[in-house]
Amino acid sequence: MTHFHYQQGELFAEGVRASEIARQFGTPCYVYSRAALEQSLAAYQQALADVPHLICYAVKANSSLAVLDILARQGAGFDIVSIGELERVVAAGGDPAKTVFSGVGKTAAEMARALELGIHCFNLESAAELEVLNRVAAERGVVAPVSVRVNPDVDARTHPYISTGLKENKFGVTMEEALRVYRRAAELPHVAVRGLDCHIGSQLTELTPFIDALRRLLTLVDQLASEGISIEHLDLGGGLGVRYRDEEPPSIASYVAAIRAELGERQVQLVLEPGRSIAANAGLLLTTVEYTKPTPAHNFALVDAGMNDMIRPALYQAWLDIQPIEARTEVQPRTWDIVGPVCETADFLGKGRELAIADGDVLALFGAGAYGFTMSSNYNSRPRAAEVIVDGEQLHLARRRETLEDLLRGEQRLPDKG
Ligand code: LLP
């Protein structure tokens, strides 16, 4: 069941009218459904209930403390790519021991903090990073748990900007290089080989690339075993797509079932790093129509959310559904381009939408729970939006709207020339 639904022409988020949320918190405002977040995490948990597993929610998708809190309470682990994300996990009550650290550019300081907190595993992305981690762990007198992120060179058939598992991408190491990195890791005193990792891309709507990648990983696991290097966990990354429009991605259950079928009787812990499939459809963005501006070429609806609030349409030509939160019967539908106030032609949320709207209406942008707020910025000196959790009939302000003071925090003018 969807946690955002219309009742007699009015949009509800769980048990609360969207109009009430807009009234209380203003717009632009991100709204996340607690039940929706819990439901998608539960789908992963149920599909994996009888095998050793760790679900590491990819924090980059939506790193709101309240969202992390909801997922941590339900037992999720986390996939992080910076120390900032790790501190968020800790602040939200997440368990570092269930956290994996991905990313191509981990600094020595980030490694030191992650070692101090005792994370589950470092997903190494280069031979050079292995040497730095060994040194940092030696300085602290500890042993760092590691996986190597392999780039299996499979085509994820998704948008090129979010495809990561092709050999021309900067991520991971080739299969051949991985062997060398593992051999070296096995020699080093301050790292311990724990797993094997990959992540091939995001918004995948087919199972084949996942399974192709997994098969390649398994040949490597066997090769490593023959050299006496044993792998305790297999981390298949994230990437399962969601429906924004008419995509038909596999369900969480069938995705997990396909992986399990391929793994057969192998005794490994399965680690997954889902982001979008947990958060995207658990969130929407509310925005108000400030002006309607019909022109000979296009009818523009100028709304108060811009590309600084939601960059996915501008950056990836992403299509997100846009609907008024209250149906209007007295206004004729027209074709609208929904555009923001930012001074860029790329500042649009949707183009060519058939909608019956007028100035002052509040619109909902669906599928905005992942890579929405986390990719927002202060471009054009625009304060970032508020974030609200809806939980049944309850509303919880997860992040207050930024103020103009927030915008200037940390900055200073030059001293007088003297
Ligand atoms: N693990 C790693 C190592 C990743 O790089 C990512 C996403 C994930 C897990 C989570 O993938 P997901 O399950 O969310 O597909 N900003 C883009 C998406 C970038 C994804 C980057 N990596 C967008 O808005 O479409």
UniProtKB/TrEMBL annotation:
<feature type="binding site">
    <location>
        <position position="239"/>
    </location>
    <ligand>
        <name>pyridoxal 5'-phosphate</name>
    </ligand>
</feature>
<dbReference type="InterPro" id="IPR002986">
    <property type="entry name" value="DAP_deCOOHase_LysA"/>
</dbReference>
<feature type="modified residue" description="N6-(pyridoxal phosphate)lysine">
    <location>
        <position position="60"/>
    </location>
</feature>
<feature type="active site" description="Proton donor">
    <location>
        <position position="343"/>
    </location>
</feature>
<keyword id="KW-0663">Pyridoxal phosphate</keyword>
<feature type="binding site">
    <location>
        <position position="371"/>
    </location>
    <ligand>
        <name>pyridoxal 5'-phosphate</name>
    </ligand>
</feature>
<feature type="binding site">
    <location>
        <position position="316"/>
    </location>
    <ligand>
        <name>substrate</name>
    </ligand>
</feature>
<comment type="function">
    <text>Specifically catalyzes the decarboxylation of meso-diaminopimelate (meso-DAP) to L-lysine.</text>
</comment>
<keyword id="KW-0456">Lyase</keyword>
<dbReference type="InterPro" id="IPR029066">
    <property type="entry name" value="PLP-binding_barrel"/>
</dbReference>
<dbReference type="InterPro" id="IPR000183">
    <property type="entry name" value="Orn/DAP/Arg_de-COase"/>
</dbReference>
<comment type="subunit">
    <text>Homodimer.</text>
</comment>
<dbReference type="InterPro" id="IPR022644">
    <property type="entry name" value="De-COase2_N"/>
</dbReference>
<keyword id="KW-0457">Lysine biosynthesis</keyword>
<comment type="pathway">
    <text>Amino-acid biosynthesis; L-lysine biosynthesis via DAP pathway; L-lysine from DL-2,6-diaminopimelate: step 1/1.</text>
</comment>
<dbReference type="Pfam" id="PF00278">
    <property type="entry name" value="Orn_DAP_Arg_deC"/>
</dbReference>
<dbReference type="InterPro" id="IPR009006">
    <property type="entry name" value="Ala_racemase/Decarboxylase_C"/>
</dbReference>
<dbReference type="GO" id="GO:0008836">
    <property type="term" value="F:diaminopimelate decarboxylase activity"/>
</dbReference>
<comment type="similarity">
    <text>Belongs to the Orn/Lys/Arg decarboxylase class-II family. LysA subfamily.</text>
</comment>
<keyword id="KW-0028">Amino-acid biosynthesis</keyword>
<dbReference type="GO" id="GO:0030170">
    <property type="term" value="F:pyridoxal phosphate binding"/>
</dbReference>
<feature type="domain" description="Orn/DAP/Arg decarboxylase 2 C-terminal">
    <location>
        <begin position="29"/>
        <end position="369"/>
    </location>
</feature>
<feature type="binding site">
    <location>
        <begin position="273"/>
        <end position="276"/>
    </location>
    <ligand>
        <name>pyridoxal 5'-phosphate</name>
    </ligand>
</feature>
<protein>
    <recommendedName>
        <fullName>Diaminopimelate decarboxylase</fullName>
        <ecNumber>4.1.1.20</ecNumber>
    </recommendedName>
</protein>
<feature type="binding site">
    <location>
        <position position="371"/>
    </location>
    <ligand>
        <name>substrate</name>
    </ligand>
</feature>
<feature type="domain" description="Orn/DAP/Arg decarboxylase 2 N-terminal">
    <location>
        <begin position="36"/>
        <end position="280"/>
    </location>
</feature>
<dbReference type="InterPro" id="IPR022657">
    <property type="entry name" value="De-COase2_CS"/>
</dbReference>
<dbReference type="Pfam" id="PF02784">
    <property type="entry name" value="Orn_Arg_deC_N"/>
</dbReference>
<dbReference type="InterPro" id="IPR022653">
    <property type="entry name" value="De-COase2_pyr-phos_BS"/>
</dbReference>
<feature type="binding site">
    <location>
        <position position="312"/>
    </location>
    <ligand>
        <name>substrate</name>
    </ligand>
</feature>
<keyword id="KW-0210">Decarboxylase</keyword>
<feature type="binding site">
    <location>
        <position position="276"/>
    </location>
    <ligand>
        <name>substrate</name>
    </ligand>
</feature>
<feature type="binding site">
    <location>
        <position position="344"/>
    </location>
    <ligand>
        <name>substrate</name>
    </ligand>
</feature>
<dbReference type="InterPro" id="IPR022643">
    <property type="entry name" value="De-COase2_C"/>
</dbReference>
<dbReference type="GO" id="GO:0009089">
    <property type="term" value="P:lysine biosynthetic process via diaminopimelate"/>
</dbReference>
